[in-house]
């Protein structure tokens, strides 16, 4: 146990300014998204640019490319939420079982493609884990831009999966951030589901 504590303290001491910036802006954007606040999108742009650099240098190539996708969805989400801000009739929608089944199938296919690519084309030591987390995040982010309530269930699941991965990569602060993300995602799911039911 003392060795583990020493490792944690050492990782905190080595945390870069960039990781602090990414952590703070990442926390803010997820918190604001759970509250349906449109400012989550511009703040997320700062976070994803920062983490894109961090993940590339940590050889988490799937996550690095995912940040570029997040940047695009931040711009799209900002536009989509702004356009539909005046429409209060049904701001949140929910998938049925068939749509969720299709969502899982898409994640499985994306995982196979990304994992194979990362294994063959990069020096990643966690190609399929990176590919899986990237695939789930890819889908969850798109569902969030469309205000589909189940996006939060995917985020809870993948945030928990990310924690040991980031610890393995020496990104302790980011691992703790994803623990906080999972907690926020749970509350986001409850709040969005309650809002959805109010408009049913």
Describe this structure in words.
The protein is built from 8 helices and no strands. By secondary structure, the chain is mainly alpha-helical.
Arithmetic mean of pLDDT: 89
Helix fraction, binned, reads over 70%
What's the Cα radius of gyration? 17 Å
- Strand tally is 0
Query: How much of the sequence is in beta strands?
Result: under 5%
What is the domain tally? Answer: 1
Order of helices and strands: HHHHHHHH
Q: Return the structural class.
A: mainly alpha
Largest sheet: none
Low-confidence stretches: none
Distance between the termini: 51 Å
User: What spatial form do the alpha-carbon principal axes imply?
Assistant: globular
Number of helices: 8
Secondary-structure map:
Elements: H1 2-13, H2 17-34, H3 40-57, H4 61-83, H5 97-121, H6 127-145, H7 151-168, H8 172-198
Helix pairs in contact: 2-3, 2-8, 3-4, 4-6, 5-6, 6-7, 7-8
What tags apply to this protein structure?
single chain, 200 residues, mainly alpha, globular
Brief description of this entry?
The protein is globular and about 55 Å long.
């Amino acid at each position: 146990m003392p060795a583990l504590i020493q490792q944690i303290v050492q990782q905190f001491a080595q945390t870069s300014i960039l990781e602090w910036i990414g952590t703070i802006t990442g926390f803010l954007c997820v918190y604001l998204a759970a509250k349906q606040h449109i400012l989550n999108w511009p703040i997320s742009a700062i976070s994803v640019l920062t983490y894109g650099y961090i993940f590339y240098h940590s050889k988490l190539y799937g996550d690095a490319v995912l940040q570029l996708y997040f940047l695009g969805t931040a711009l799209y989400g900002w536009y989509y939420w702004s356009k539909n801000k005046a429409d209060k009739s049904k701001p949140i929608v929910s998938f049925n079982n068939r749509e969720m089944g299709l969502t899982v199938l898409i994640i499985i296919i994306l995982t196979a493609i990304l994992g194979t690519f990362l294994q063959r084309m990069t020096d990643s030591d966690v190609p399929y884990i990176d590919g899986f987390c990237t695939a789930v995040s890819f889908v969850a982010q798109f569902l969030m831009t469309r205000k589909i309530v189940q996006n939060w269930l995917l985020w809870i699941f993948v945030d928990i999966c990310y924690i040991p991965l980031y610890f393995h990569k020496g990104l302790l602060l980011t691992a703790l951030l994803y623990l906080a993300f999972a907690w926020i995602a749970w509350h986001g799911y409850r709040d969005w589901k309650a809002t959805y039911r109010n408009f049913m």
